[in-house]
Design a protein that fits this description.
It is built from 20 helices and 24 strands. It has 676 residues and is of the alpha+beta class. Among the domains are: 108 residues, 2-Layer Sandwich (Beta-Lactamase); 114 residues, PAS domain (Beta-Lactamase, 2-Layer Sandwich), CATH 3.30.450.20; 180 residues, Reverse transcriptase/Diguanylate cyclase domain (Alpha-Beta Plaits, 2-Layer Sandwich). The C terminus is likely disordered.
């Protein structure tokens, strides 16, 4: 058979092309490797330099913030109740602290417990009398009694973004009586601008981020101050910075520019300080070198191609005669059968390896068919010894391992430790054929030791040759279903406002309590509580105030009872306390119940401080309200009467307590009434 020298069927042409490809792959790989290593080395050096610079700036930012916070705390320690009660003296005191005022370019304020500014600097800002409770830094200092740095926000007086920080003022007993706050105008010359306003190189820039509200606090480019960051999921680099991933990396920033970026934490304020250098500037020298390397590689490629063609033309001439003996192989279009091995030589070994490969592919095809026939997510195979031999990627995701890590585990290591003996028994029954399949819910443990519920379907797996390969298992993660069931249970058994048990759950617990009382011979008690004058609060301040009061009452009730007792909201402003394990003697049990009821009554009678949210027609309001409760008690012993009768008796006693003048306790007794 003859052919053109440049035909694609020509052995010389193919060997030339393949040899040239090998050479090209080698030289281009070397070129790429050299360029890549050089770029990585430069990236590492630049990253280290960039990180060092960033850490110095971050240290300075931390020190500046700490110095200002220390100054606020020292000034706050010098104020007292008498000084706060004399605004003129307070203002004079503030005027005498010019160094303190210099720390905050937008001034300082001193507020009372109600958030109203009592004194401020500079006085020209006219801040006295303004309420600063809407500023988070003031609210935290007053309500949580701790120094803090607030979120950057627009100040209506300055019409500029302001960073506020505040420290609480305490009286001699340590009670918070006010706050002192310092304000920094981020658009004006400030300490942050001095630290992050410089550039790195020609075009590198610093950016100070507040991750909680995803906003720029300060930046080399001042126009970015108070600019919002892209939403979560829009830019991976921004998301990594927000989540605190600080390693130096190359990525595209929010402006669409590829940059070499580093990040460190500003721990005093939980901010992120980021420095970014465009890769065009960072890798300009290495890219010039890469261009020269590319030109050299192209030149060598042309030279090598010509030399290889010339060499093959001379060396492969004898092989052209052998090509005439070769024929085309027709397409068999039939089921595959092992190829016969004519001779035990290199070609025979090649055919034997090919046959073995086809056999292994057949087994894998059988496994693949099993997988395709299964609609579940996590799929795995365990051998008769219980070790995982195959697993899919979804299983790795579900359990928090890599696929390779799963292949090093026993299946029982993924199961709740309490179920492992049962799992081993079921595995043996499956392998023996005692049970055909498993289909059940089971608790599993992830790599981080957290638990989740899963539905398991498992069966024996026999390959195409009839060999027992172990057990094939499939796991539809039923965590969401369990969560939904728990939500339904919460809605069915618990009051949505207070989180206390509702009537349905109360009756179940009463039944259990009466059964327990019957077995132990100890009395139990049902306390029925009704808030006095609750309607007055609702009528005066609205239902929102009433809801706040009910939530606080629920909290006090849970605090006032014992661990063995139960608290429920019966409806409206009515609550029920189920008391367990009182004395066997009725008189002693009555005395115990009265003591507990008296304690509850005292807890509920203490003043309530309720913060009403701002409305369209009124600002946020803090009121102090006093509320008492009338309590009726019904004792029970065993199953002497039904739950409804116990509730009825306690209700009657409660109305007797109201009739006795409210804020009192009455015990229901068919013969006599004991009250306190």
């Amino acid at each position: 058979m003859t052919s053109n020298a440049f035909s694609r069927n020509s052995l010389k042409t193919r060997v030339t092309i393949f040899t040239l490809l090998i050479f090209l792959i080698s030289i281009w790989s070397l070129s790429f490797y050299t360029s890549r290593i050089a770029q990585e080395d430069m990236q590492q050096v630049l990253g280290e330099q960039q990180s060092s610079s960033l850490k110095l700036v971050a240290t300075s930012v931390n020190h500046e913030l700490r110095d200002r916070m220390d100054a606020l705390e020292k000034v706050a320690a010098g104020f007292n109740q008498a000084l706060l009660g004399n605004p003129a003296a307070l203002q004079a005191n503030l005027d005498q602290r010019p160094i303190f005022q210099e720390l905050f370019n937008a001034g300082v304020i001193v507020t009372g417990l109600d958030g109203v500014a009592l004194a401020s600097e500079p006085t020209t800002a006219q801040r006295r009398g303004l309420n600063y409770l809407s500023r988070d830094y003031v609210t935290v200092a007053l309500t949580q009694a701790k120094s803090n740095i607030g979120r950057p926000a627009m100040d209506p007086q300055l019409a500029a973004p302001v960073l506020g920080m505040a420290a609480p003022i305490r009286d001699a007993q340590g009670k918070v009586i006010g706050a002192v706050a310092g304000l920094t105008n981020l658009k004006a010359v400030n300490f942050l601008e001095d630290l992050v306003g410089n550039r790195l190189g020609k075009s590198g820039a610093y950016v100070l981020l507040s991750p909680e509200d995803r906003v720029v606090v300060a930046a080399t480019d001042k126009s970015r101050i108070m600019q919002p960051l892209p939403a979560s999921g829009v830019n991976r680099l921004v998301d990594r910075h927000v989540h605190g991933e600080g390693r130096t990396t190359i990525a595209t920033d929010a402006q669409g520019v590829e940059v070499l970026s580093s990040m460190v934490l500003i721990q005093v304020a939980d901010w992120r300080l980021v420095v970014s250098l465009p890769t065009d500037e960072a890798f300009a020298p290495i890219r010039a070198m890469q261009l020269r390397l590319l030109l050299g590689t192209l030149l060598l490629t042309g030279l090598a191609g010509g030399l290889i063609w010339w060499m093959l033309k001379r060396q492969l001439a004898p092989l052209l005669a052998a090509s005439a003996a070769l024929t085309d192989v027709a397409d068999a279009r039939q089921a595959w059968q092992p190829l016969p091995i004519a001779r035990e030589d290199e070609i025979g070994n090649l055919i034997r390896g090919f046959n073995r490969l086809q056999s292994e592919l057949g087994q894998r095809e059988a496994l693949l068919q099993k997988v395709l026939d299964t609609s579940s997510v996590a799929i795995f195979l365990i051998d008769p010894q219980g070790r995982i031999t195959q697993a899919n990627h979804r299983m790795a995701e579900m359990f928090g391992y890599s696929v390779q890590s799963l292949l090093e585990l026993e299946y029982v290591a993924l199961v709740d430790p309490a179920d492992r003996d049962t799992v081993r028994q079921q595995k043996g029954e499956l392998l023996k054929g005692a049970i055909p399949t498993l289909n059940l819910d089971r608790m599993y443990t992830r790599g981080d030791h957290s638990m989740f519920g899963g539905h398991l379907t498992a069966t024996r797996f026999v390959d195409a040759h009839g060999q027992d390969r172990g057990i094939l298992g499939v796991i539809v993660d039923i965590t969401e279903r369990k969560r939904t069931e728990e939500i339904v249970r919460q809605l069915a058994y618990y009051d949505p406002l207070t989180g206390l048990a509702n009537r349905l759950l109360l009756r179940e617990r009463m039944t259990q309590a009466m059964l327990t009382s019957k077995r132990s011979g100890h009395h139990g008690a049902l306390m029925f509580l009704d808030l006095d004058n609750f309607k007055t609060l609702n009528d005066t301040y609205g239902h929102g105030a009433g809801d706040l009061l009910l939530v606080e009452v629920a909290a006090r009730l849970k605090k006032g009872v014992r661990e063995v007792d139960a608290v429920a909201r019966f409806g409206g402003d009515e609550f029920v306390v189920l008391v367990m394990d009182l004395a066997q003697d009725k008189v002693a049990a009555q005395a115990q119940a009265l003591v507990l009821a008296g304690k509850i009554r005292e807890l509920l009678a203490a003043p309530y401080v309720l913060t009403l949210a701002a409305q369209a027609d009124r600002p946020q309001q803090v009121i102090e309200h006093r509320c008492t409760a009338s309590i009726g008690i019904a004792l029970f012993l065993g199953m002497a009467f039904l739950e409804e009768e116990a509730i009825k008796r306690a209700d009657i006693a409660m109305y007797q307590a109201k009739a006795a003048g409210r804020n009192s306790v009455c015990i229901y007794d068919a013969q006599a009434q004991v009250s306190a």
